């Protein structure tokens, strides 16, 4: 039976684009918000992981709004404000890099998703957030991650792209569809529709933007694998796009593998995650929560907290101080989505290009406006398998995926998607009065015609041409980007502004620690009880 979904969904997409671009509120379509979180390991000049503490000149990793750490003390996270145009977002990201380089001496930011040369797993420094109860909780959570997954995997880095549509867009669609849902529920439902479409088609992003086809042999710590030998120190897959997003990188553990998030309804999603953060898991129970009187994980459940769930995309809502993410979603609905599968682009100093961001905006708009079928377990599994296949062999000639249970050539499906994305790009450009989105889509279409243009292919070709190992390639790119930022220091006013922000964040942390009330044991007990008592979704 032929698959008629593409034409049917394109009709819905074109209708909604028309509704949003033909009225007096058409500017709302370009008035959403874009934020970027970029992770980067600090490394020494020779590519080894920096073992130095988070630089004090960057402020407090606990309280600074823009500069923090992720898993390791060496894994910096740069967080931009949310802006209406990704060009402004990327300017903020560039500025953050320039300030960081003023504070890290001879160290370099590793501008690759797969890490450089790491010490032994148990020597990788876990991020330290001080002596306040919340700071200690963040540390214990990371100790738990180390016990569950190992520290090495936590050193993989990426780009998170936060995307929202202006609420006027949802109001217009709500009226057009004569929906009986209230505004909050309608908006949440449409964001979940975006997520379902994303889950089915985000393999396309891996093909177009995946940039981690190789890794250092030592990263695997002797684990079994199916990689091939590139050189004495480097393993790779000839057609891989993103080993970071494959089973070798963000692999789901046995505990997480059984966790299927329900993206059909918000109550279903909340229920699945709430169960995971409250359901004990035997292997973690065997570890326990304390060793020799020291906390080693927050709890023994499938997930210690909801953010432990490794997902390529998350529904999000800005939280109030002390509020859990699931509580915020339950109380006020979905506000934006966080796209988490983008590799760091080793050819871009900031790790992501404006062109990539423009393409993401057009692609995510299609995901948001297209019809979106439910994602029951078989479809969920099919989407995961397609995604995994493209991470490991996306550039393989003639590669086939599976759509609705039927084989389909990846390139045929990709060209269907690009045709839809063209419509979204044209709509955005008609409002902006330029062709920036259309050109971004054209650049990606060229990669479909010629796989050698993809970042993953370019990485391997440069390594071959220059006879570089993965570490040599990564260090050369990172050093070049370091020089780019160091050659453009911030002016005095910007430096003073960032210095003041860092100083203020340190004072905030000190105040938290000074005014702390209650023991850490009591704090953890209250934290866990809050989680368990608030969820009966």
- Number of distinct helices: 18
Looking at CATH, which topology would you report?
Creatine Kinase, Chain A, domain 2
Level-1 CATH class name: Alpha Beta
CATH architecture: 2-Layer Sandwich
Query: In which range does the helix fraction lie?
Result: 40-55%
Strand content: 5-15%
The CA-CA distance between the termini, in Å, is 39 Å
Q: How would the global form be characterised?
A: globular
Query: Average pLDDT value?
Result: 94
Low-confidence stretches are 1-8
Structural class: alpha+beta
Number of strands: 14
**Main pleated sheet:** 7 strands, antiparallel
Number of domains: 1
What is the CA-based Rg, rounded?
Answer: 23 Å
Catalytic activity: L-cysteine + L-glutamate + ATP = gamma-L-glutamyl-L-cysteine + ADP + phosphate + H(+)
GO molecular function, one term: ATP binding
Organism: Paraburkholderia largidicola
Pathway: Sulfur metabolism; glutathione biosynthesis; glutathione from L-cysteine and L-glutamate: step 1/2
How are the SSEs ordered, and which strands pair?
Layout: H1 5-22, E1 33-43, E2 67-69, E3 75-79, H2 86-101, E4 108-110, H3 133-149, E5 159-164, H4 167-176, H5 183-201, H6 203-209, E6 214-216, E7 228-231, E8 234-236, H7 254-257, H8 266-276, H9 282-287, E9 290-291, E10 294-295, E11 313-316, H10 325-332, E12 336-342, H11 354-369, H12 377-393, E13 400-403, E14 406-409, H13 410-432, H14 436-449, H15 455-465, H16 470-486, H17 492-514, H18 520-534
């Amino acid at each position: 039976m032929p698959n008629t979904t593409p034409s049917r969904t394109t009709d819905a997409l074109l209708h909604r684009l028309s509704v949003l671009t033909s009225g007096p509120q058409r500017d709302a379509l370009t008035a959403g918000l874009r934020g970027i979180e970029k992770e980067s390991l600090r490394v020494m000049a020779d590519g080894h992981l920096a073992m130095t503490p988070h630089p004090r000149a960057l402020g407090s990793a606990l309280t600074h709004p823009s500069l923090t750490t992720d898993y390791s003390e060496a894994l910096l996270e740069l967080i931009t404000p949310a802006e209406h145009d990704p060009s402004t977002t990327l300017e903020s990201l560039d500025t953050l890099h320039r300030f960081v380089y003023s504070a890290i001496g001879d160290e370099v930011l590793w501008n690759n998703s797969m890490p450089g040369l790491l010490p032994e797993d148990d020597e990788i420094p876990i991020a330290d957030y001080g002596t306040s109860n919340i700071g200690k909780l963040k540390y214990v959570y990371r100790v738990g991650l180390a016990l569950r997954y190992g520290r090495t995997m936590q050193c993989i880095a990426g780009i998170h792209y936060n995307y929202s549509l202006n609420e006027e867009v949802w109001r217009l669609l709500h009226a057009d569809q004569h929906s009986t849902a209230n505004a909050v529920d309608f908006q949440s439902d449409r964001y979940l529709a975006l997520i379902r479409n994303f889950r089915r088609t985000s393999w396309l992003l891996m093909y177009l933007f995946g940039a981690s086809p190789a890794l250092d042999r030592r990263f695997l710590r002797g684990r079994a694998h199916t990689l091939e030998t590139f050189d004495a120190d480097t393993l790779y897959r000839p057609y891989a796009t993103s080993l970071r997003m494959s089973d070798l990188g963000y692999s789901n553990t046995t505990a997480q593998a059984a966790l299927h998030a329900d993206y059909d309804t918000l109550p279903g999603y909340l229920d699945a995650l709430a169960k995971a953060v409250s359901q004990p898991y035997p292997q973690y129970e065997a570890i326990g929560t304390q060793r020799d009187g020291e906390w080693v994980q927050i709890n023994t459940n499938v997930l210690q907290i909801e953010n432990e769930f490794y997902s390529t995309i998350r529904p999000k809502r800005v939280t109030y101080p002390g509020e859990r993410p699931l509580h915020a979603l339950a109380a006020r609905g979905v506000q934006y989505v966080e796209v988490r599968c983008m590799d760091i682009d080793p050819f871009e100093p900031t790790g992501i290009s404006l062109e990539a961001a423009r393409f993401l905006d057009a692609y995510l708009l299609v995901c948001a406006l297209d019809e979106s079928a439910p994602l029951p377990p078989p479809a969920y599994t099919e989407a995961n398998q397609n995604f995994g296949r493209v991470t490991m062999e996306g550039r393989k000639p003639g590669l086939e995926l599976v759509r609705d249970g039927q084989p389909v050539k990846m390139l045929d499906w990709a060209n269907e998607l690009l045709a839809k994305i063209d419509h979204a790009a044209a709509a955005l450009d008609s409002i902006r009065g330029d062709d920036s989105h259309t050109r971004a889509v054209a650049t990606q279409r060229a990669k479909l015609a010629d796989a050698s243009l993809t970042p993953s292919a370019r990485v391997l070709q440069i390594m071959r041409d220059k006879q570089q190992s993965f570490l040599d390639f990564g260090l050369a790119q990172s050093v070049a980007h370091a020089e780019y930022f160091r050659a453009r220091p911030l002016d005095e006013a910007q430096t003073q502004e960032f210095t003041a922000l860092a100083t203020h964040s340190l004072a905030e942390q000190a105040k938290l620690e000074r005014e702390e009330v209650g023991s850490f044991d009591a704090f953890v007990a209250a934290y866990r009880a809050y989680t368990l008592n608030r969820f009966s979704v």
